[in-house]
């Protein structure tokens, strides 16, 4: 007979219920004490793995950004914005970055848009349209650019190119980076809010309100859409129920291997997984959540020996190919962005939960 049963049965009947309740309480307390401490304390070993992965991968994207101006003089989201994003996140997580290279990328971005100043003011002539300008403003923000005539003209461009239904549309089909009107709209809102001058505030508030209404009801067709919708709803401080529904849609798309795919029909890959984790972290998730832990482990498992991540391109070329010297040959122009999102996610994951708030 079990000791607790024996203790209960030896007592008078009127005392048995009280002792039974006490024994249950003791058993529950004992069970709680036996649970792993990792749920309440930082997992230092796992954090060190994340930090080591960032240390291995960061130099590759810094070098990729540094080589890009040798081949192209114009701004690009894949070799300016995303490497800078990875560098900022790594620095915030305690890593040393190439500050000279970081500043050079910001200056290249500013110079590139300064060259198009009149077209920006006229709302025309920008390849990639709202997505390019949205990424450009995000890049300048990362680099600490103060508002000036260039950023004012970029805001003017966005105000002049918003669609009637409130979105900023994509004008190219280069998946996964250039296929989501939701991503384009979210980035446009970020840029408008950050860089609008006083004379533009009224128009910007109206544009953001219109864009928000479109985001509320926008359909999602890809993982990029799903995470952009969550990002947008959180940024616009929509009701908790709407944000929770969007978060659940993102989490429900996670695969058994811990990663996410670009499309429902595609396998998990580092681009979709890194991007998804970044948005989850930016909207309140922490490393301790099971889905995020599994996603981070997927990124650790898929990092290559040289510190890179590989993603096969599915975008049809619209420009003459050139080799920037990055890993993975003709797949480098999606593999480098994948590395950037992965490094951003790993850097956020390596920080304590309170620091991600």
What's the structural blueprint in terms of helices and strands?
Elements: H1 3-10, H2 16-34, H3 44-67, H4 77-92, H5 99-115, H6 117-122, H7 129-142, H8 149-161, H9 181-195, H10 201-217, H11 223-235, H12 240-252, H13 270-282, H14 290-302, H15 332-350
Counted by DSSP, the helix tally is 15
Largest sheet, in brief, is: none
* Mean pLDDT across all amino acids: 90
End-to-end Cα distance, whole Å, is 52 Å
Structural class: mainly alpha
**CATH topology, what is it called?**
Glycosyltransferase
Summarize the structure in words:
With 357 residues, the chain is an all-alpha fold. It has one domain: Alpha/alpha barrel (Glycosyltransferase), CATH 1.50.10.20. It has 15 helices and no strands. Helix 9 runs parallel beside helix 11 and helix 13 (270-282) runs parallel beside helix 15. The longest helix has 24 residues, at 44-67. The radius of gyration is 25 Å and the shape is globular. Mean pLDDT is 90; it is low at 1-41.
